[in-house]
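ARCHIVE CARD
CATEGORY: sequence design from structure
SOURCE FIELD: tokenized fold
FIELD CONTENT:
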């Protein structure tokens, strides 16, 4: 039967045939870590990338040793200067083979302090993503993340995590799972399964504003996600269609909280022109969030462990924190005038209320990219972090703060950015509904690599009024952020980089002030001899609660790295 649809329309509909819920746009990231400057940067991902990878196989492993001296001055306290040393070992590795791709950036650091204000401590940070093809239709992927994060967003913490560590925790997250994709005549079949684990190790208790009660931090959770879809691209029919189902679950140790989400839906795509289509879907969804009560003392106060977390009462009945059961639907438009430009926007009903989501991507060349994402999800902290990690590409270069060595919240690449800041906003132990928008623009031209990311995230917490944290029921916190990056190779042996950031955090608690954080840093790297390079960096950071005095600090470092 001859096709009634033009080839251009087929491309448009094929891109929408398997769309169920749009996800945050993620792009390849550009390296800003110390490295041998003779090495070329990874190329941008484009439509010909699979063929290029077929022709270019590589396996690069670069372990290194690093030593640096850091100086930190408190500009609001008489200019008191602290100094400490760090010794670090790490590895950057990238593999691109016919049936496998992987990228690893991991670093272990030992801080050696010289006063009671800067204590000795260890820090493990890293980011890894990989994918391996096991057969014609089956592959397996995995990812891991380790970093430091603010424990409670009511207490101030500089963006560099230098100096005072009263409100800093260590976060670790891993996930893995198989995927299946096959083409049966005109019908596409796809499925995926993921399992993840997330753990938070608390640091010292945060110093909260007067009148604010401490909330225990997230401990650990196990999360699962399964999706399956059957779809037909246009050709035999004048429209595209898809039927899909999914299940997401997270079990957290604190309060024995459980997030259980199931859905079944059908989608259709109706062409209006060769570049424009109407899209819509309808289905059924069931989302339940529940928890248990905690053990209490004779006065009725919750019993806590030594690190401040609650002791769950295993005999307590499950307490309902959120329940949404019924019809879901959405409708919108899909516009794709070329393979480098795509826009999707939808409005509908989900989670018992109106919902908006969509995405926009524009890559006019390999040296420029614009990405925008609007999202609406329900999950716990572990599930949110696993989802962000799973959205990263398998080829990236992690960006790090030159002064602290920590992974940056936002990483820039030649076609976009990926940000972990929303997932790490605050380590509260209850689930939440997260809604917001993120946008980024990156360019690479004239020897300069530049990027900017901005966004807004709103989290509404889901906790039982009958449980141990009734104050979190319906609490809403908000985060506005912006981050910028600029880098340039000055010659074959030297490089300059600078980063700026800004945050406005509204913790949502009564009487808890908004917190403003801004900062900037700059670094210069110089290759001295073969694998030996030197670096110098300076930075300034300011943290200010609303209607209160803030803290301003300046920092600097000198360091050496040897890459094997």
């Amino acid at each position: 039967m001859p096709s009634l649809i033009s080839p251009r329309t087929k491309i448009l509909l094929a891109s929408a045939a398997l769309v169920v819920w749009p996800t945050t746009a993620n792009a390849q990231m550009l390296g800003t870590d110390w490295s041998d400057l003779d090495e070329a940067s990874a190329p941008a991902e484009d439509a010909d990338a699979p063929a290029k990878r077929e022709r270019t196989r590589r396996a690069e492993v670069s372990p290194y040793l690093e030593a640096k001296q850091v100086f930190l001055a408190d500009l609001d306290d008489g200019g008191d200067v602290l100094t400490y040393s760090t010794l670090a070992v790490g590895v950057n590795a990238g593999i691109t083979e016919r049936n496998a791709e992987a990228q690893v950036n991991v670093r272990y650091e030992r801080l050696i302090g010289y006063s009671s204000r800067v204590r000795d401590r260890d820090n493990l940070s890293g980011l890894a993503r990989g994918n391996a093809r096991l057969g014609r239709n089956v592959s397996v992927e995995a990812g891991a993340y380790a970093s430091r994060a603010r424990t409670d967003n009511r207490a101030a913490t500089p963006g560099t995590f230098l100096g005072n560590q009263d409100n800093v925790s260590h976060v670790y997250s891993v996930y893995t799972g198989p995927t299946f994709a096959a083409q049966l005549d005109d019908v596409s079949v796809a499925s995926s399964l993921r399992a993840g684990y997330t753990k938070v190790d608390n640091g010292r208790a945060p110093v909260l504003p007067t009148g604010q009660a401490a909330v225990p931090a997230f401990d650990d959770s196990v999360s699962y996600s399964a999706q399956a879809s059957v779809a037909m691209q246009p050709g035999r029919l004048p429209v595209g269609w898809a039927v899909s189902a999914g299940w997401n679950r997270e079990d957290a140790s604190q309060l024995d909280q459980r997030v259980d989400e199931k859905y079944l839906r059908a989608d259709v795509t109706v062409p209006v022109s060769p570049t424009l289509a109407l899209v819509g879907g309808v289905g059924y969804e069931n989302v339940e969030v529940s928890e248990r009560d905690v053990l209490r003392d004779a006065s009725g106060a919750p019993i806590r462990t030594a690190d401040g977390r609650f002791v769950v009462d295993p005999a307590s009945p499950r307490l309902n924190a959120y329940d949404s059961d019924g019809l879901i639907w959405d409708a919108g438009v899909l516009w794709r005038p070329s393979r480098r430009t795509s826009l999707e926007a939808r409005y509908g009903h989900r989670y018992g209320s109106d919902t908006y989501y969509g995405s926009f991507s524009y890559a006019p060349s390999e040296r420029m990219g614009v990405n925008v994402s609007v999202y609406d999800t329900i999950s716990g902290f572990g599930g949110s972090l696993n989802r962000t990690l799973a959205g990263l590409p398998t080829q990236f270069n992690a960006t790090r703060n030159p002064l602290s060595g920590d992974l940056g919240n936002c990483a820039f690449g030649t076609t976009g950015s990926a940000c972990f800041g929303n997932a790490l906003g605050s380590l509260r132990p209850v689930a939440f509904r997260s809604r917001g928008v993120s946008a980024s623009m990156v360019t690479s031209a004239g020897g300069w690599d530049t990027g900017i990311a901005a966004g807004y995230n709103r989290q509404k917490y889901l906790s039982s009024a009958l449980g141990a944290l009734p104050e979190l029921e319906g609490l809403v916190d908000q985060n506005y952020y912006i981050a910028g990056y600029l880098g340039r190779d000055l010659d074959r042996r030297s490089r300059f980089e600078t980063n700026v950031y800004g945050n406005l955090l509204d913790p949502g608690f009564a009487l808890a002030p908004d917190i403003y954080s801004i900062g900037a840093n700059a670094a210069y790297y110089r290759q001295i001899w073969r694998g030996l390079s030197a670096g110098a960096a300076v930075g300034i950071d300011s943290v200010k609660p609303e209607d209160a005095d803030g803290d301003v600090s300046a920092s600097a470092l000198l360091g050496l790295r040897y890459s094997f």
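CARD ANNOTATION: The mean pLDDT is 84. The radius of gyration is 24 Å.
SHELF: design records, drawer C
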